[in-house]
């Protein structure tokens, strides 16, 4: 006879072979080890479960329930929960006997979930989760039930059901994704998300967002379903979706983090950064300490800009940037519908700002045209507006080259008139200039010559934020359209005739991009050979000259370009300074030209002298042919000149031989290019040549490169960068904290007399002089000097000159 003990002192009799008392956990372990020997006990526990289930349902029907659930007989609920968990554990060992148990348990939980006590409901849910984890029942059949359980007012149950749904779907897609099964589960959640019931829609949205964030359901269907939840009737659902979408748009300071990496890691990640050896040598070995410091800074900026461009291109190729807005099927319809809701909604200002940011980001990302959006923004463009920097950042993101300039022109003028004027605050002027720069970067056709020249004058401002913003505007238009700037502000642009594209102008590619680099590879190699030769010459000259001579020669060779470029980039001084610099540059160029002319004249004279000497020496050679003798001096001179000419001919022939060898190696590739067929080697060579070209361009442009329209559409505008260098007004607590922070390194304040009194050690030099023993002669001389000074003072005291009298003239 076996007695089953459900609790510590509640035996339940059961037919068996012995009369020992067993608890449910010990009986469960024995049944798992020997399923066939405990069939009778299983039948008994199963009948007890169904009887307790029937009794509980009868009590519920007779309304033996309170607000928190059934309260008449708690032992029934306890027995029911224990038997349900017991049968869930042993179900895998008795699949035939307990075939109907999972469906009965799910049906019971679905029908009576709201009326069950919290403890019983939690135990029954755990039993059902155990059955799902052991794949006895499918998650597709119980997903709707677990989503229903999350809407109940039970925190522990809601957490349990949510974690079970997320982990079950993750485990299902761990090895491979079953699209049919995923689609069925997505349909369940999508249907719940579209319901009017706010609780069900909210739980469905949270589940979808969590699976999407964990990259389990990382497809277009899930992204579109989340985005379309913006139009739910409940404002809470809309706010939750907007915040989820804006979380992907948080600005990541990857530029600074990437620049802080070690050089070895950078070179391992970006092996295509190619810098000319001569430029690197000049930056480290030529010139004074100050000039080398400037060249090193310029070189580092060029390297950082190239690495940043390569990283952005690799991110675009690998699709590392992701936002659910990028996968919208009907982006134009989404934006128009959300904008109409923004115009008619009565939500608070923060919610409107969230809607406005999502609209602007979608317009910029997909390059959409929403003409009514810019006049809507124009109403809020005021310096005193709340969250004005976020609003202006959204306005910048909504601008792209596909929008007609006439549609954005009123908004652009509103920003200029409201922010940039003489009576505006310096921080407002700085923000306005930065916004104008970002808008002109995307739509340069908005700027005209008169307005740009007025804005450029703010470079003379004493406020750092204003002058820096004006100089950044000058730097931008040096690359986009230098003709709009005054001559002294143009600097040395790479392309002086550069102009922005007209509205609607598109460059259509008719060939493989950058294939012209492959065609002009010989010229690039020859230029590199010339640069390496110049480098060797400069190295040999450095051994003979001192640093000052090197700096002077380098400045005359380069025309002061590098230092002037640094000045142009970092500090824009007054107009007279620019004129003086340009005059000095012209003078240097004229001097260089004069020096070159003098050197060429001297070389021509030397060649003429040598030619005359050779022609003179050829006359005795002719007479010697007739039997005369040769002049030994003429023979030596002839041998010396012939050796020099031989060296020149040998160098020329070696260079020609190298060119022929290069042409022979490129013969196969040239034939492939003629056929229009490119191999992987060609594309690798194009990549390397493009890296060399970018290196040269980056060095010429001081690390500044105009991004393309596609890059600008992916770029996220940071509102904090629009107010860069702006010193915000501090309150009293912040000022006091700054003062205390400055006093941390100081010692405790003490008066000077107290310090002298507390001094330990000997006397000071002054005190020692007072106590110094003087000889007798010195004492007599000192006393005599003092007597003489007293006498002179006494004599002057009665006869002091007080000026001439008026009548004594």
Global outline: extended
Q: Quote the distance from N terminus to C terminus.
A: 152 Å
| Rg, nearest Å | 44 Å
Q: List the total number of helices.
A: 38
Low-confidence stretches: 5-20, 64-72, 251-272, 532-640
Mean pLDDT: 75
What class do helices, strands and sheet pairing give?
A: mainly alpha
Helix content: 55-70%
Largest sheet: 3 strands, mixed
**Strand order, biggest sheet?**
2-1-3
The share of residues in extended strands comes to under 5%
Number of strands: 5
Oligomeric state, counting identical vs distinct chains: single chain
Protein name: Protein SDA1
Domain SDA1 C-terminal: 761-806
Keywords: Nucleus, Protein transport, Ribosome biogenesis, Transport
Biased composition (Acidic residues): 516-534, 541-550, 560-615
Description:
- The protein is mostly helical and 809 residues long.
- The protein is built from 38 helices and five strands.
- The strands form two sheets. A three-stranded mixed sheet has the order 2-1-3.
- Helix 16 (331-344) packs antiparallel against helix 17 and helix 19 (388-397) packs parallel to helix 21 (426-442).
- The chain is extended, with a radius of gyration of 44 Å.
- It starts with a strand and ends in a 12-residue tail after the last helix.
Summarize this structure briefly:
This protein is mostly helical and 809 residues long.
Provide key terms for this protein.
single chain, 809 residues, mainly alpha, 3-stranded mixed beta sheet, 5 strands, extended, nucleus
What's the SSE blueprint?
Layout: E1 2-5, E2 11-14, E3 21-23, H1 24-33, H2 39-61, E4 65-66, E5 69-70, H3 74-90, H4 101-112, H5 118-133, H6 139-149, H7 155-172, H8 179-193, H9 198-213, H10 220-228, H11 235-247, H12 254-259, H13 263-269, H14 277-285, H15 289-318, H16 331-344, H17 349-366, H18 373-378, H19 388-397, H20 405-419, H21 426-442, H22 449-456, H23 464-480, H24 487-490, H25 515-519, H26 521-544, H27 547-558, H28 561-570, H29 575-625, H30 632-665, H31 667-675, H32 680-700, H33 709-714, H34 719-722, H35 732-742, H36 752-757, H37 765-770, H38 776-797
Parallel strand pairs: 1-3
Antiparallel strand pairs: 1-2, 4-5
